[in-house]
């Protein structure tokens, strides 16, 4: 998965010159990794792709294929990923997690549960462009149970963007009533709220939940008591992939 700072476009970039310098860095005995990194680290994704086209025109070879052969380890992984934007890197990660031996559900959770609506649409488009598959269909075909329902719901890209404090307080009370206040956890209620509310609202719900549960305990027992916020309750009272999904959305620290 890809995160990190945005690289600004190099104002005087010459794709053909960069292609020639990269060829020199890979030619002969040994590879000049420092030169490769210095060139590519200071180019945007679009500029790197332009360099790759210039390289193929000049040398008749695929630049990424050449880099794959001449580099190794973390440097190779980072350099090859740098030719793709965040959506395409995450799309490849999702495909690998689904199509490899078994399913690495944590990758799907980390990518899908933390994406906003625009990122979801970009991810689905990149997945289709990269592997010629439909991400939602692949998730349905490879994931089972509550996690399938959650991921498919999130892939609709319909998360709310508005923030309403009154709704936050109402949601916190509903989650407390459907969680700690009763025997067992109302998973459908937790899912409905955390899948649809904006990330700003979810952060506020996390803290409002603590105040709601604390006020209830003080009312019933007339004592001062430091109570859990929503994230802490989830850690203690849920398990498995459902727990991982909730913590990913809540922003586990």
Write the layout of secondary structure elements.
Blueprint lengths: L14 H12 L6 H8 L4 H15 L3 H8 L2 H9 L4 H14 L5 H8 L4 H15 L3 H8 L2 H10 L10 H13 L9 H10 L2 H23 L8 H8 L2 H11 L3
Helix pairs in contact: 1-2, 1-3, 4-5, 6-7, 6-8, 7-15, 11-13, 14-15
Structural summary, described in words:
The chain has 253 residues and is mostly helical. It has three domains: 68 residues, Orthogonal Bundle (Annexin V, domain 1); 71 residues, Annexin V, domain 1; 86 residues, Annexin V, domain 1, CATH 1.10.220.10. It is built from 15 helices and no strands. Helix 1 crosses helix 3 and helix 6 runs antiparallel to helix 7.
Contiguous runs where pLDDT drops below 50 for at least 5 residues: 220-226
Q: How many domain modules?
A: 3
General form = elongated
Coarse structural class: mainly alpha
Q: What is the H/E order? A: HHHHHHHHHHHHHHH
Proportion of beta-strand residues: under 5%
Oligomer: single chain
Rg calculated over all Cα atoms: 24 Å
The name of the CATH superfamily of the largest domain reads: Annexin
CATH class of the largest domain: Mainly Alpha
Main sheet overview? none
| Fraction of residues in helix | 55-70%
The count of strands amounts to 0
What is the CATH fold-level name of the largest domain? Annexin V, domain 1
Q: For the residues shown, what is the average pLDDT?
A: 86
Number of helices: 15
Question: Can you name the CATH architecture of the largest domain?
Answer: Orthogonal Bundle
């Amino acid at each position: 998965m890809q995160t990190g700072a945005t690289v600004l476009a190099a104002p005087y970039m010459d794709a053909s010159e960069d292609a020639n310098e990269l060829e020199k860095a890979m030619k002969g005995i040994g590879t000049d990794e420092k030169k490769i990194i210095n060139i590519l680290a200071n180019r945007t994704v679009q500029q790197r792709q332009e360099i790759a086209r210039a390289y193929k025109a000049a040398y008749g070879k695929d630049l990424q294929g050449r880099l794959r052969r001449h580099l190794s380890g973390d440097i190779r992984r980072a350099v090859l990923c740098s030719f793709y934007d965040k959506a395409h890197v995450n799309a490849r990660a999702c495909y690998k997690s689904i199509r490899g031996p078994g399913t690495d559900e944590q990758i799907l959770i980390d990518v899908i549960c933390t994406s906003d609506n625009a990122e979801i649409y970009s991810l689905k488009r990149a997945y289709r462009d990269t592997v010629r598959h439909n991400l939602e269909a692949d998730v349905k075909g490879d994931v089972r149970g509550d996690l399938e329902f959650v991921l498919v719901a999130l892939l609709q890209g319909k998360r709310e963007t508005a923030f309403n404090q009154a709704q936050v307080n109402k949601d916190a009370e509903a989650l407390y009533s459907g969680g700690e206040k009763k025997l067992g956890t109302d998973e459908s209620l937790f899912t409905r709220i955390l899948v649809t509310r904006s990330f700003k609202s979810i952060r506020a719900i996390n803290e409002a939940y603590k105040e709601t549960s604390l006020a209830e305990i003080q009312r019933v027992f007339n004592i001062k008591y430091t109570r859990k916020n929503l994230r802490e309750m989830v850690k203690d009272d849920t398990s498995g992939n459902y727990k991982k999904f909730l913590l990913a959305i809540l922003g586990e620290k």
